[in-house]
Amino acid sequence: MSQFPARLRQSTGREPLRMATCVAVAAFLVDWATKSWALNTVHDATLPLGSLVLGVARNDAFVFSSGTGRVPPAVIAAARLLVLIAVLFVSRHFIFASRRCAVGLALLTAGGLGNAADVMFRDGAVVDFIGAGPFAFSWPGGEPVHLTLVFNIADVAILVGLGLLAPMIQQLAIAAQHQLLIRARALARRLAAGT
After folding, report:
1. pTM for the full model?
2. Is residue 172 part of a domain?
């Protein structure tokens, strides 16, 4: 039994990976526990909590309930898992870049796993229970919009993770644009030399 922590330290290697693993497990467990609490305590009621409202809503589709009733739960679960696999595949290249990247990727992964676990183990739907809004505003054309958001801790983890990763994403985008510009200039020179 005492060998397990030593094996875990050896298997996780560097400190950012250990930290990311701990953050991901903690965020996943907090998400699962809060959703379980909401299902067992809130049920069909709504509880005001300052400017928020707690009430259970099930999302059996993609983000913001897009595809409701048109996409089978198995397809939704498969799509969520494919996105998670892609995040894990990409994250192995960036997990050691910084602690910020490690935590951002961990939160992104934990949030994705939390919502995917709902689809697989909670009747094919994500459990949302935190309501915010309604927010009213007008589009530039003058069309009024009334928006109410319903989300969960996994969604918060995903957004915070993306916020932490935003500088790295911006740097990667700038580097990709720079490489594209270099290739376009080289192609233009070759075309100009060939004519």
Report:
1. 0.79
2. no
66, 87, 104, 108, 115 from 91: Cα distances, Å: 27, 6, 10, 10, 19
Tell me whether residue 4 is in a domain: no
What residues make up the domain containing 134?
Answer: 14-166
DSSP H stretches of helix in the chain: 3-12, 15-37, 73-94, 99-121, 153-194
Please indicate, yes or no, if residue 174 is contained in any of the structural domains: no
> What type of residue is 71?
V
| Structural domains of the chain, count | 1
Please write the tens of the pLDDT for every residue from 40-88. Answer: 998 888 888 888 889 998 888 777 666 677 878 778 878 888 988 988 8
Residue 2 is assigned to a structural domain of this protein: no
Residue 67: both structure tokens together: 């595809």
Cα 135 to the center of its chain, rounded Å: 23
- With a CB cutoff of 8 Å and minimum separation 6, the contacts of 54 are 38, 42, 46, 47, 48, 129, 130, 131
Distance CA 126, CA 187 (A): 48
Phi, psi of 95 (to 5 degrees): -60, -30
